[in-house]
């Protein structure tokens, strides 16, 4: 496929760079480079304000399949979206807190929601005013999403309007503490099994006594993920109709491996550059031929992932492409974390001066150490490697299904 930048893209690059330079000042400049996977605890207030700044500039929802300006957003081509992401990364703009609503929920509403739902929820996302989290995984039903046990029943009260009441637990929920809303996959047909009888529900997080969020402390000392408990929480909407949740949920997971995968790789490239800089620094391990070979492999594999993502976005029609992409980047990122500490040598095992045994993970970890610890989970969350291989084997290669 032809994936070259045209004159319009270069004009956009200049405009994006100028806008970012003008607006990345004050608290936003101090939040530069903060946030993102492994560092979601950093600069949350500044990043939430930055989300609204992006909304005022029309930079949220660039790839939505709706007319430009329908919800206050600019409409950019695929190459335009990549240009914006490249400039965003180059200027180290703050890590996004609204990406779940922008890149997952919004396209899902466009594909499966009603016009009323799009008009209700997309403007708040486009303005950066309403943040979302994803309620899919549960204890005992992580990668096996069809095994969820969270239930939702019709509220039969006189003022209920037929809304659902959600009861159950979700886990590994990113940004649950910051989110205003959660899209929840729940079982709405009593006695149903596996993927049947599920519904895709929209739940407001601010329901005291009915929604509780508990942070999950990680090896890195941060708490990107959370447990979320629903105790009769009111669901405002059902997307795609009652009982059609599996179809909607699978459509959303396919979107998760779309343009966002290509954008993600820009962040990977920046991390690789930092590791290369450490490798070539005076007194570092730059004479080690094994590490040099591994770093070259990382660079080559990142280029391969980029071309694979472009091929997929160009309409390859390969039903296994999302799973292939997840397998590629999950293993690549974990290996990068291992290389980040290998390049540092013995120094990688030492904490900062303010480390204390009472709070071993609260402080003292630098970016490379956090990268190593966080990326241990890359081949598990978002669908484990085993699940991705099963999908490829069964749905693409037509191999017999795994016995249960």
From TrEMBL:
Domain Acyl-CoA oxidase/dehydrogenase middle: 133-231
Cofactor: FAD
Keyword tags: FAD, Flavoprotein, Oxidoreductase
Residue ranges occupied by any Acyl-CoA dehydrogenase/oxidase N-terminal domain in the UniProt entry: 10-129
Limits of the Acyl-CoA dehydrogenase/oxidase C-terminal domain: 243-397
Family annotation (InterPro entries): Acyl-CoA_Oxase/DH_mid-dom, Acyl-CoA_Oxase/DH_mid-dom_sf, AcylCo_DH-like_C, AcylCo_DH/oxidase_C, AcylCoA_DH/ox_N, AcylCoA_DH/ox_N_sf, AcylCoA_DH/oxidase_NM_dom_sf, Mycobact_Acyl-CoA_DH
Membership in a protein family: Belongs to the acyl-CoA dehydrogenase family.
The protein, known as: Acyl-CoA dehydrogenase family protein
Organism: Streptomyces goshikiensis
């Amino acid at each position: 496929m032809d994936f070259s930048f045209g004159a319009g893209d270069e004009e956009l690059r200049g405009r994006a760079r100028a806008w970012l330079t003008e607006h990345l000042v004050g608290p936003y400049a101090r939040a530069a480079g903060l946030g993102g996977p492994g560092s979601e605890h950093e600069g949350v207030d500044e990043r939430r304000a930055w989300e609204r700044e992006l909304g005022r500039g029309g930079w949220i929802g660039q790839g939505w399949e709706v007319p430009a300006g329908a919800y206050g957003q600019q409409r950019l081509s695929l190459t335009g979206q990549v240009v914006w992401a490249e400039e965003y990364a180059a200027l180290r703009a703050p890590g996004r807190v609204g990406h779940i609503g922008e890149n997952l929920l919004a396209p899902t509403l466009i594909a499966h929601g009603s016009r009323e739902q799009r008009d209700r929820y997309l403007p708040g996302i486009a303005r950066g005013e309403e943040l979302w989290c994803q309620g899919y995984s549960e204890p005992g039903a992580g990668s096996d999403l069809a095994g969820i046990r969270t239930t939702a029943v019709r509220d039969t009260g006189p003022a209920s309007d037929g809304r659902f009441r959600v009861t159950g637990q979700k886990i590994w929920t990113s940004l649950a503490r910051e989110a205003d809303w959660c899209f929840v996959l729940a079982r709405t047909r009593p006695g149903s099994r596996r993927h049947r009888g599920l519904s895709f529900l929209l739940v407001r997080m601010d329901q005291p006594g009915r929604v509780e969020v508990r942070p999950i402390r990680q090896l890195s000392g941060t708490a990107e993920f959370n447990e979320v408990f629903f105790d009769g929480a009111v669901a405002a909407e059902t997307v795609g109709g009652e009982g059609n949740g599996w179809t909607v949920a699978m459509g959303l997971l396919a979107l998760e491996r779309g343009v966002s995968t290509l954008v993600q790789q820009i962040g990977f490239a920046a991390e690789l550059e930092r590791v290369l800089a450490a490798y070539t620094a005076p007194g570092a391990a730059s004479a080690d031929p094994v590490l040099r070979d591994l770093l070259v492999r990382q660079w080559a594999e990142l280029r391969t992932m980029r071309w694979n993502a472009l091929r997929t976005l160009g309409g390859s029609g390969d039903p296994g492409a999302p799973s292939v992409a997840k397998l590629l980047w999950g293993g690549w990122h974990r290996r990068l974390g291992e290389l980040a500490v290998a390049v540092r040598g013995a120094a990688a095992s030492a904490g900062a001066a303010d480390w204390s045994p009472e709070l071993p993970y609260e402080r003292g970890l630098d970016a490379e150490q956090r990268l190593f610890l966080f990326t241990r989970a890359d081949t598990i969350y978002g669908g484990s490697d085993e699940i991705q291989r099963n999908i490829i084997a069964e749905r693409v290669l037509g191999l017999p299904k795994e016995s249960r």
